[in-house]
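Contributing new records

If you add data, match the layout below exactly. Sequence lines come first and carry their own label; structure lines follow with theirs. Keep one chain per record. Anything else will be rejected by the validation script.
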Amino acid sequence: MGRTIYVVDGARSPFLKAQKGPGVFAASDLATQAGRALLLRQPFAPADLDEVILGCAAPSPDETNIGRMVALRLGCGPKVPGWTVMRNCASGMQAIDSAIANIQCGRSELVLAGGVDALSRAPLLYSDAMVRWFAGMMSLRTVKQKIGHFLKLPYAELLRPVIGLMKGLTDPVVGLLMGQTAENLAWKFGIDRRQMDEFAVNSHLKAMSARAAGHFGEIVPAVDARGNIYAEDDGVRADASMSGMARLKPFFDKKYGQITAANSSQITDGAAWLILASEEAVQKWQLRPIGRIVDSEWAGLDPAQMGLGPVHAATPILQRHGLGLNDIDFWELNEAFAAQVLACQAAWNSEEYCRQQLDLPAPLGIIADDKLNVDGGAVAIGHPVGASGARIVLHLLHVLKRNNAQRGIAAICIGGGLGGAMLVENCR
């Protein structure tokens, strides 16, 4: 990168697990509350930002261009552009990368970038047959015609709504749910149910330990209209155990599968923000950055094996900088599924995969356990699709800072057969 890209600060909302029905907060509420707390502690005013970029994979119909909507709610004023990006699971990381590009070319110096989704509010949809029935009703004029049309109501379709979230989590090209693509990886690399469940239990245990140690300082509480305070990620389970995991049945392939709701990431609502700045903006406002973004990469692969996206995105970064897997001090590899993270490890450790798919002369090995997702990941914390790419970059910078470590990589798999990765450094 030509210009140094600094991360000045960041914050996120608690990640709130979808329960029964729509969550307490709309996506714009979560982004506004987290962004407001972040901006209040800065020496500059919201109107001093050059732009606001927000990633969102599933905005509500009343939150079109949610980036602009939130920018105005944050008090940035009418002159600060706010816009929205969508790269599925990496929408938050794409927002960061878009900010980097604009700072690099000199269009911006100070940018608020992040991601958000409120997956609990994904809509129920009518089938095409029901839509046609409604359209037919609207075209009728007389009461008699409308009564006759009403008698033709397709009750079976009325009582069988389309689950918007399920459609959104299904790859339209290969026709597979994201969990089914993870089942493909489990079969490909021989990953069994016990390995997945052990990984999931450890994710919860790590997150609980990190919470007890105060390692989630980037979280700012959310407050609802009744004054109730939500201060922590509420999907983390202190009672996670192998026996508890074993009780759940496979969800995506009920006959032959091994992936369950418990060894998958949670359906979650949440928002995460970072403030990015050029050297000039750091000096102008006398900012104290927490880190630098050194490099980024996007990669494509077979959509049916999308979970290996981190391998394809992070490997070129390693090659460009002459680094091995364990030359990286810490990794944040988003846990879409336990099987998916395990498959990434297996791919890097496979001579066949590295030669045939990555054009490497030899396998890269395995990331050491004490370097990978040290505070747990999305299996425990949750995966609000639009926010996760921003969350892992922000949290990785906090991990580097508290360990006085130099460099880390945040990587994420992306529905549609993509991967994203960023190399970051601590500002020591």
